[in-house]
Amino acid sequence: MALISRWKADFPVFLQSEQPLFYLDSAASSLVPKVVADASYQYLINEHANSHRGFYPLSAKLTQRIEDIRAQVANFINAPSADNIIFNSGTTAGIHLVAKGLSRLKSANGNIVVSAAEHHANFLPWQQITENSGIELRIAPLAANGQVDLTELEALMDDNTLIVAVTHLSNVLGVENPVASIGKLTQQHGAFLLVDGAQYAAHGKVDVKSLGCDFYVFSGHKLYSGHGSGVLYASDAAIAELLPVVLGGGMVNSVSVSDSTWANSVRKFEAGTLNAQAIIALSKGLSYLRQAEAEGAHTYLAELTQFTLDKLSAFGGINIYSGQQSKPQSIISFNFEGVHSHDVAMILAEHHIAVRAGHHCAQPLHHWLGVGSTVRISLGLYNQAEDIEQLLVGLEACRQLFMPR
Amino acid sequence: MSALYQQALLAHHQSPVGFNLDIKFDSEKSGHNPACGDEITVKVAVSDGVITDIAFDGDSCAICRASASIMCEQLNVTALTQAKNIADKLVTGLESKEDLSELLGESYAALNAVASFPIRVQCAQLPWQTFQQCVEGLAP
Hints:
The complex is a heterodimer.
Chain A: H1 13-16, E1 22-23, H2 34-47, H3 57-76, E2 85-88, H4 91-101, E3 111-115, H5 124-130, E4 136-140, H6 150-156, E5 161-167, H7 179-189, E6 192-196, H8 208-211, E7 215-219, E8 230-234, H9 236-241, E9 252-255, E10 260-262, H10 276-294, H11 297-315, E11 318-321, E12 331-336, H12 341-350, E13 353-354, E14 356-358, H13 363-369, E15 374-378, H14 385-402
Parallel strand pairs in A: 1-13, 3-4, 3-5, 5-6, 6-7
Antiparallel strand pairs in A: 2-8, 7-8, 9-10, 11-12, 12-15, 14-15
Helix pairs in contact in A: 2-10, 3-10, 11-14, 12-14
Chain B: H1 7-14, E1 27-32, E2 39-47, E3 50-57, H2 62-75, H3 80-95, H4 100-104, H5 118-135
Antiparallel strand pairs in B: 1-2, 2-3
Helix pairs in contact in B: 1-2, 2-5, 3-5
């Protein structure tokens, strides 16, 4: 089986770099295909204006385009309607809109449950809310397979649980959480469910209806769309409880010196000028990803992930952190025994291999793993067997340098 | 050979001076580098204004560990004021990319390569900064 990417040629960076590039850091930010860059360029030179404001055609057309993209995004995650889609700058901003704006979190008691595997973006806002308030923060531990332990999670929940916040796919372990099962638990207790989809959205089909979640959050820059766009899906029930946090232009119905009312749509959560360039790039990125999925991207990346796991296991001296008997999706974290993750990443960089090293903004998870840091490789559509072969060359150089015989 | 991981530096990493030693100490301080996760604890024993023992432990990268090893090698049995002076020079010298062998002597040459890798400068500085804090309250 030849693991050669049919999509790599779509990414100009591989043609233009003076140095070879073995990019294994897509979980941080995925690279951008030419179609997305072209759309950004076309937008900037021909279509740039301020949306949702102007009466002139340039602005009106842009407004329509953004509203069309809102519908496209709704379709991408099987949301009931475009009225459930809020644009923002990224996952971190989306989670903050919920944590700061949800009226039930202003209450004097209750509890919030998050998992031990959360990215700091889905941990710190909840921790801050529960400091100096009557609301308790409960941390759901992980099972040996790296998933949230459902039994433990259920035991932590009660009818005072306000919201449960979990990642769909761990940014360190690459392990998918049983979100639909968690959704059933939150519905039983009348709690909201927020799902951090930053990693999952690039690797699997998202269906917010079948997941039973109230909020689903993701970023464009992990979806081949470049930086600057984020999406917060909120169910109708969730929107009814959500107060705007960022106030300003474009989000009002009327403003007077004594009183103001907010727009009667998701626009009330989008104060200020929308980043139209990023939203258009997101649209192209989502279309590109959907096309790649139709061409077999999920199967290809699953095979490449398995290939990588097999190669790393056979290499020796590598501890892989993906949970026991779990099947990581495109994200694999490991340590080279006796060598610090930063030294591994540095040597790999000298071999033109891009990886992430550190705690990946998930320190509680690293405490669970019992290590301070890990090396993370993450796969994108452009990766192929030769990237992994080069990784092994780099790891062999680490071995020679740090563990000479 | 790697541009950063020169032989002299690797030698310190592989056989670090003062690493994991259980010494009697007068002052102990932990430091960590939030950007990369290096953690180090420095212990210092002082008698009559002279460092009589110095050790470190922690989970850190090769640069940090080698730098700590050089520190223990160079500062042991040194007057506290002189040691503080060396630490000050080293921390600022790394920052301003000075030639450390000219500034402090050949024993520090292994750290010269670090200046070419700005994100790793803080790894080399951490043991010394932790030492600075560790001895801050000690009488000279």
